[in-house]
Specification:
This protein has 230 residues and is an alpha/beta fold. The protein has helices at 21-32, 34-40, 54-62, 76-88, 128-137, 154-161, 163-166, 183-192, 224-229; strands at residues 44-48, 68-73, 94-97, 109-114, 167-178, 195-205, 208-217. Helices cover 34% and strands 23% of the residues. GO terms for molecular function: nucleic acid binding; protein-glutamine N-methyltransferase activity.
């Protein structure tokens, strides 16, 4: 899996998270999983919080059946950077300025990738609406790309709580977590909700112990719409 070309200008560093060790760990994990991903034949691939757009662009370059690839970010600057990286690599990717996956129809995502804000920073101050307004009203602090609130899981838990609605029946999520995010607890929580969770890669870097989780549906798991029909 080749690393896509990306290009930051001086103004971008205060607005968009630059690819770092966590990004490249997730890229390595996706490369390890590439044959399984191809076998799933995903038609809709989504990265939440793409930042530079490096990961979703790498995915698009590897999937020759030309799926729809989306980068979804609450930060408009990250959306623009994702489109720039896509263009630099001639790999068609769309970017949507949106809060997580609220605007997508149910059960439409076949491949989901998320490198969340994972650093524990205490309780998040302000409402979601206030944070959205910060991004839309002008330059926003880069802290939003890594500050994860209590246990570093405020944003992650919101996405996981919506996973049953958004993931296709054969869909899969690749999620990066920090040791302090308690990945084993995340796996148990998802298993209680009918998913399978596995740690597929980990890496120690200076000051951080990172994990990549693969989460998909357990065999025989019914979709939310099927449950509602009962």
């Amino acid at each position: 899996m080749d690393t896509p070309i990306y290009q930051f200008e001086s103004k971008d560093y205060d607005l968009v998270y630059e690819p770092a060790e966590d990004t490249f760990l997730l890229l390595d994990a996706l490369e390890d999983e590439l044959e399984d991903i191809k076998a799933r034949w995903p038609l809709v691939c989504v990265e939440v919080g793409p930042g530079s757009g490096l990961l979703i662009t790498a995915i698009r370059k590897c999937l020759l059946h030309a799926p729809l690839c989306l980068g979804v970010d609450i930060n408009p600057a990250a959306c623009r950077m994702t489109l720039k990286t896509s263009a630099l690599n001639a790999a068609p990717v769309d970017a949507v300025n949106m809060d997580l996956l609220a605007g997508l129809r149910p059960h439409c995502v076949d491949l989901l990738v998320f490198n969340p804000p994972y650093v524990p920073t205490g309780e998040v101050e302000g409402s979601l609406e206030e944070h959205v307004d910060e991004f839309r009203s002008g330059p926003s602090p880069i802290i939003h790309s890594w500050a994860g609130g209590a246990d570093g899981r405020v944003v992650t838990d919101r996405l996981l709580g919506d996973l049953e609605r958004i993931l296709a029946p054969d869909g899969v999520l690749y999620l990066l977590l920090l040791k302090e995010n308690r990945p084993a607890e995340v796996i148990r929580w998802m298993e209680q909700r009918g998913f399978r969770g596995t740690i597929i890669k980990e890496r120690r870097i200076r000051g951080e112990h990172l994990f990549v989780l693969r989460i998909d549906s357990s065999p025989g798991k019914r979709t939310l719409s099927e449950k509602e029909e009962d």
